[in-house]
Design brief:
Strand content: 5-15%
Helix content: 40-55%
Distance between the termini: 17 Å
Number of helices: 17
CATH class of the largest domain: Alpha Beta
Largest sheet: 5 strands, mixed
Shape: globular
Mean pLDDT: 94
CATH superfamily of the largest domain: Periplasmic binding protein-like II
Strand order of the largest sheet: 2-1-3-10-6
Low-confidence stretches: 1-21
Length: 427
């Protein structure tokens, strides 16, 4: 209930204007994903040039969301810069929790991919700048599919993907057919699960924002997910999200992985091939859309210096800095944020995944539809969604682990979501 209650009090938050003097240090809360970790090394040059010390607080995704939400909602002031995404940015911007971003002309805001720019804005005002953006796609071991005599195509059917997973599943030799998110969290297991539900024709809410988790589409999707991962996934999948599966994949233990396109930057296995996300008859919403972005909490006394850093860290120049960095190179640049990145010859040569990633981003469909009356693909852009999604995430993890039946987990999810939405006054 933190987000909802804090939204009611958001008008009490006021922005403390930055003084003309430069800040001596900035405290930055980041998610502990690879590109963010790399930024700490690349940003040493920023400190050397500006004298601004950068204090990094690197947190696991779920912990980051909890701490950043709590601190920003209450005006706690722990951080000068925060990592947030498309679910939060428009809502927090409208509530006055974060500052609007205004950059110099040479920043070239029009170079930011429209899907990212729109998803991080409210009423045309940008409230968070994308550090990297992503959709989702299939990343698979073509050597294994070729050896098994199976193929995975763009926008393939879930049934064909399941058959491919079965064919390449070889646990006796440490290879699992499919590695998929199972760790509970609205941005962890539910990011992937929601795309499966979408592809089966389901949605989180109907046009009156009543939860539809007890629908036949949800039942079919979750039964399929539990069966696929239970039979052809690694043991303990209910504890795996992005970082855990990335480690498994790079250890050669995953035949296929359907997850964030950004993962392709960090795969260290030969013979990886890519395909657009599968579906069960409905391709709309079968691949998600997200950006990890940088925003300034309202109340930061270092807002001016924070804006300067964000402009640098999300610029064309930053992409060049990573591409030319001796520890990283063009295969490690943050992607999915700027159109110009995809036109760089060195990037094209190093990033064999680039075309598939851009196609996935361009095909993502966050707009509201008759089937899905809310903005967002793997989330709903309403203040209550993190609470709803987190409650359902626990139930889905219980179903995956076998602690609950799918039927019981869905019933409990529907009950929890209904209570949250009623209390919020939707009906």
């Amino acid at each position: 209930m933190l987000l909802k209650n804090a939204l009611r009090a958001a008008t009490a938050l006021t922005l403390v204007a930055a003084s003309g003097a430069s800040a001596e240090s900035l405290t930055i809360a980041i998610v502990n994903n690879g590109h963010m970790i790399n930024m700490q090394k690349v940003a040493e040059a920023y400190t050397a040039e500006t004298g601004v010390e950068l204090n990094w607080v690197s947190l696991e995704e779920g912990v980051l969301r909890e701490q950043v939400t709590s601190d920003t909602a209450t005006g706690g002031g722990q951080y000068d810069i925060i990592n947030i995404g498309m679910q939060e940015a428009p809502i927090w911007g409208a509530a006055g929790w974060i500052e609007p971003l205004n950059f110099s002309a040479d920043y070239d805001v029009d170079d930011i991919l429209p899907a990212m720019r729109n998803g991080l804005s409210h009423e045309g005002t940008l409230y968070a700048a994308p550090f990297y953006g992503e959709s989702s796609m299939v990343m698979y071991r073509k050597d294994l599919t070729d050896a098994a005599g199976v193929a995975i195509g763009d926008n393939d059917s879930w049934d064909n993907v399941k058959a491919a997973a079965a064919a390449i599943h070889d646990p006796d030799n440490g290879v699992y057919g499919a590695c998929l998110r199972g760790k509970p969290g609205w941005g962890d297991n539910m990011a992937f699960i929601t795309t499966v539900v979408n592809s089966f024709g389901g949605a989180w809410f109907d046009k009156d924002y009543k939860p539809t988790i007890d629908s036949e589409e949800w039942k079919a999707a979750i039964n399929f997910y539990v069966d696929l991962l239970g039979n052809y996934g690694p043991p303990g999948s209910e504890g795996n999200s992005f970082n855990e599966i990335l480690a498994l994949y790079n250890e050669g233990k995953c035949g296929m992985w359907i997850d964030a396109t950004i993962a392709a930057s960090f795969l260290d296995v030969d013979g990886v091939a890519y395909a657009q996300s599968p579906n069960a008859g409905n391709p709309v919403g079968a691949n998600w859309l997200w950006a990890w972005a940088m925003a300034i909490p309202a109340g930061s006394p270092n807002a001016e210096a924070a804006a300067d850093f964000i402009q640098w860290a999300t610029s064309k120049e930053y992409v060049q800095a990573v591409g030319n960095h001796p520890d990283f190179g063009w295969g490690s640049v943050p992607t999915g944020q700027r159109a110009s990145t995809y036109a760089i010859p060195e990037f094209q040569a190093a990033a064999k995944f680039a075309a598939a990633e851009l196609a996935a981003i361009d095909s993502a469909a966050p707009e509201a539809t008759d089937l899905k009356p809310y903005v967002g693909v793997q989330f709903a852009a309403i203040p209550e969604f993190p609470e709803v999604g987190s409650a359902v995430a626990q139930e889905m993890a219980a179903a995956l682990s076998g602690a609950k039946s799918v039927e019981d987990a869905l019933a409990a999810s529907q009950k929890a979501a209904d209570a949250i939405m009623k209390e919020a006054g939707y009906y």
